Each structure stands twice: as structure tokens, then as C-alpha cells.
Amino acid sequence: MNSSTVGIMVGFVLVFYAIFSGGDLRSFLDFDSFLITVGGTLGATIAAYPWETIKNVPKVLRNLDAKKLAEPRAIIALLVGYAEKARREGLLALEDDVEEMDEPFLQKGIQLIVDGTDPELVRSILETELSFIEDRHSANAAVFDTMAALAPGFGMLGTLIGLIQMLQSLDDPSNIGSGMAVALVTTFYGSLISNLFCTPIANKLRTNSRAEILLKEVMIEGILSIQAGENPRIVEEKLKAFLATSPSPLVTSSAAGEVYTVSGNE
Questions:
Q1: At what angle do helices 199-227 and 104-114 cross, to 10 degrees?
Q2: Which of 2, 130, 210, 212 is buried most, with the most CB atoms less than 10 Å from its CB?
Q3: Residues 56-82, buried b or exposed e (16+ Cβ, 10 A)?
């Protein structure tokens, strides 16, 4: 079970434990309030983004923690090994290794230098692809940021609807207390959805994105260093400098030397 699922479950369990310990859970269950909050949030979010981004959301949720990033030191060791081989046998010797790579981004970069592509063009191609990946990641996180911003607003809208309906029955004071409780439930739903679901997922997506982007930057620098024929020890020290500046650990997997496919938060 991944950390995001555990965290959300812990949050819900503690919230509902507090509800149980202080009263009746049925007071917090209202189907109409749920429809207003969830339906309104989903509808407004769908209206705010192109369909291509929206239909990617289920895949993002499924892969939130499922994918594995290669351990960065394993990637560095792999690139240093390629650098040693290229210095001994030439860049064309890496052609056989290209077919065995599981990481598409690294595979593309090595293939470009094996084909004799100009270094500046190699950098431009890889950085352009990296930019598109980063934009796609940002769009995925922005969907959940939008939902986090909208949910409390629709919760308040539901509260206003409930208050209006309650005011229409002021001639029966016995219904005021229960009517007020139902009206406030939508605000509760909106806050819960925003703070315990949407905001944590958006933050997790950004964290995953930063880790993946940094790992691919390591690959770009390593690929260009191999093409330039730099000393493998220099290549290793240069790439290790990326790890020293990393704001958060990149490791989410793996056995040393093993490279996993990284498809992004999509």
C-alpha cells in the first residue's frame, strides 16, 4: 500500500473517530449535500480543463505511487559505465546497449549520440521533451489544485441552499436545528475533500515530478558528457553534484544497477 493511500486513510479514520466519539455519524451523512459538493466540484473542474487533461486523472491516481524511479546512483553508475565503454571502443559500441535499455528517455539520448547528432541538437531535443513532461506534470497537479480550491466554495454554496430552505420552514421551530445541521454538512464535505484528498495529491504529484525531472537532468548531462568523451571519473563527479543539490530524496525503488521505466505522473 502506497504512502498516499495510507495518509488519506489515516486522516479519514481519525476524522470519523472524532465524529463517532462526539456524536452520531448519521448527522454527517446527507446525499444531497454530497451531490452539491462533489458534483459541483467535478463539473467546474471539467469545465476548466481540456478533456485530454481530465481523462488522464484516473491514470494519474492509479500511478500515484505505483511507478518506480531508478535509484539515481544506479543511473550514474550506468552512465559512467557507458562513458568508459565509449572511451575504449567509441560511441558506436553503445549501439547494442541502446536496445537493452528500459528507460525511453535515456534510450533516446544514447541513440542520438550514437547516430552522431550535433551536441547542441541533442541537448535541445532532450530539454524540449523534458519541458513537455514538466508541463504535463504541472497540468495534472493543477487539476487537483483547482478541485481543492473549488470544493470549499461548493460546500458553502450547499450551506446557503440549505439555509434558504430552512428559512422557508421557520413556522416550525422544531426543524431549525436539524435543518442547520444539514446545511453545514456541505461545508464539512468541501473542507474534507479539499484538505484531505485534493491538496495532498497535488503536493505528491509535484514531489514526484521534481524527482523525475531531476533524474532526467542527470541523464541529459551524462549523455552529453559521454558524447564529449570526458573522463569517466569526471563524469561521475559531475553527475553526483546533482544529488548534492537535490531538495528531496530521489530514491523510490530499486536494486543497484537496475533501471525502471519512468512514464511520468500521467
A1: 20
A2: 212
A3: bbeebeeebeebebbbbbbbbebbbeb
pLDDT digits (tens, 9 = 90+) for 178-190: 667 677 888 999 9
- Sequence letter at residue 158: G
pLDDT in tens, 11-44: 878 887 877 777 677 777 888 888 999 999 999 9
Does this model's pTM top 0.85? no
Residue from 72, 131, 133 nearest 260 by CA: 72
Helices 199-227 and 119-167 cross at an angle (nearest 10°) of: 180
3-state secondary structure of 191: helix
What are the backbone angles phi and psi of residue 75, rounded to the nearest 5°? -65, -45
Residue partners of 217: CB distance under 8 A and separation at least 6 = 130, 242
